[in-house]
Amino acid sequence: MSVVLFSGGMDSTALLAVEVQEKDPVVAVSINYGQRHAKEIEAAAAITAHYNVEHVVVDLSVLQDVLRSALTGDMDVPDGHYAEQTMRQTVVPNRNMIMLSVAAGVASSRDTNRVVTAVHAGDHYIYPDCRPEFIEAVSAATRLGTATFGDVEVEAPFVHVTKTDICRIGAAADAPFRLSWSCYKGGSTHCGSCGTCYERREAFRDAGVMDPTVYVATPTYSVPEGVQ
Amino acid sequence: MSVVLFSGGMDSTALLAVEVQEKDPVVAVSINYGQRHAKEIEAAAAITAHYNVEHVVVDLSVLQDVLRSALTGDMDVPDGHYAEQTMRQTVVPNRNMIMLSVAAGVASSRDTNRVVTAVHAGDHYIYPDCRPEFIEAVSAATRLGTATFGDVEVEAPFVHVTKTDICRIGAAADAPFRLSWSCYKGGSTHCGSCGTCYERREAFRDAGVMDPTVYVATPTYSVPEGVQ
């Protein structure tokens, strides 16, 4: 059994699709950390229902009172390319470590030893807690912290995979991308303007996969200088 | 500035006393993870008020629905020596990693880079997430996960210190032990029978420090064979 850290976005939807194919049974854990895009949790519920997979939702929205970020507080979510410096505002401090440690607790409680997360190569530029060295370190800490209580490890199968290739992998595994949610702005339709909408659209386009998403706006961006 | 992970028990009270002396200002973070001994949170509030230190309480009691333990669920809290095998039931899976990752998020949000926890040598036998190798690993993961967002590190100054010596160190720093709370059973007075009450009493006795605690019962235990 595996515990999949599952946001309901397109990356973790692709991961769940692969996990359902390869590792049965699976428990999907969604963590609401007070983000504005709680629409993701609804998407996560629809996708786990699609797969008839157990869905554990953990409401940690109290964290928005103590953690500073444009995603959880009163700051405006910036528009623009995902990799721009303004996107630093969307960093929720230590978010992945908090989510992974809870998922590992769930894994230990269910006598399973594997937590998987869909962090990917495109997240590295801004988010330190999506980088390969962090994943290795957090897996080591988790294994030691749960020693004799499951020896839980953390895996990030997409950590060196681009979002475009995740889109291809997910499509090949029949991932229900139409049910997934990416927008950071929390409207009823994907805004099309925020960094994650831009990234989502770009991934479908570059992967040559049909994009089932309805976007409010269709902006054009240029990648800022110095961004890879 | 330092963030002190602060339960209101005697170990973190001693740690806070030392931190207030040496590192000013300090923020104390108490995390309610659904434990039965929420009395600790009241004790923590009284102690931070004593020191006029900011007290951040994070209610993660929703975790009791997803994490299995005698401390958070319906299981009975076992009596007996703290180091007995029955005490394994009191392990909340991955508890310290969850609490430390939240404390590190608070530290990053406040532009400070140091989280301290009062885990100590006596905790190693049963709790894997109190051992020196875990502390080192979780500090490495935290530093990487908060890289460029504070580079937060975790320190455990008591990790090689016995509870008896913590009692001596706290007494020397005028720690208000009378306000602290240890009992796992959640009554209005320390039960005197549970593992942590036994350990508390033993620490005061062995340290030669006056024990200000009122206990309901005065049991005598012998240390089980094989326990150090």
Protein model, in words:
Two copies of one chain form a homodimer. Chain A has a single domain, classed as HUPs (Rossmann fold). The mean pLDDT of chain A is 86. Chain A is an alpha/beta fold and 228 residues long. The first copy, chain A, is 34% helix and 10% strand. Chain A binds chain B through residues 29, 56, 58-60, 62-63, 66-68, 91-98, 101-102, 104-109, 128-129, 131, 133-134, 137-138, 140-142, 144-150, 152, and chain B through 29, 56, 58-60, 62-63, 66-68, 91-98, 101-102, 104-109, 128-129, 131, 133-134, 137-138, 140-142, 144-150, 152.
Number of H/I helices of chain A = 6
How would you describe the shape of chain A? globular
User: Roughly how much helix do the residues of chain A carry, as a percent range?
Assistant: 25-40%
Number of strands of chain A: 5
Biggest interface goes to:
A-B, 44 and 44 residues
Radius of gyration of chain A: 17 Å
Order of helices and strands of chain A: EHEHEHEHEHH
Low-confidence stretches of chain A: none
